[in-house]
Design brief:
- This protein has one domain (5-132).
- Helices cover 48% and strands 6% of the residues.
- It is built from six helices and two strands, in the order αββααααα.
- Strands 1-2 form a two-stranded antiparallel sheet.
- Helix 3 crosses helix 4 and helix 4 packs antiparallel against helix 6.
- It is globular.
- The mean pLDDT is 93.
Amino acid sequence: MKKYEQLTKYISLIDLNNCGDWKNSDNQKSDSSIDFPYLQYNEIVYKFIEDVVSFCDKHEEFDFKNYVEILKKAKIKVGSLGDVDITKHNEKTIVLMIFAAIRAERFCEGTLMLYIKDGTLIRWLKRLEEFDNG
């Protein structure tokens, strides 16, 4: 197995147009309560997230705990990952960008969906595939 195959296998699996949907809560408690919509990703996206977490567990050399500082040193702002010219960065940086996108989802629901729908995530994965293929 190639180093990034656990992640790059999703290049052909993730559907840019059908990665998840916003759902409305059906649990109306009373007229005064407000239930916010929530995002439900499809099974492939959840599997991808699980595989990224698994990859992180296996590759401590990427120093995932310090991803924000590492990205800052590479002059990458976590809030604008989609604007990064990935041809100028190494594989560690690309992996940390994927990790940052998944972490951002925990603070701003829908962030990962944006990176999927605009093709950014697939570009990152294809760049990792390039590193695997030498």
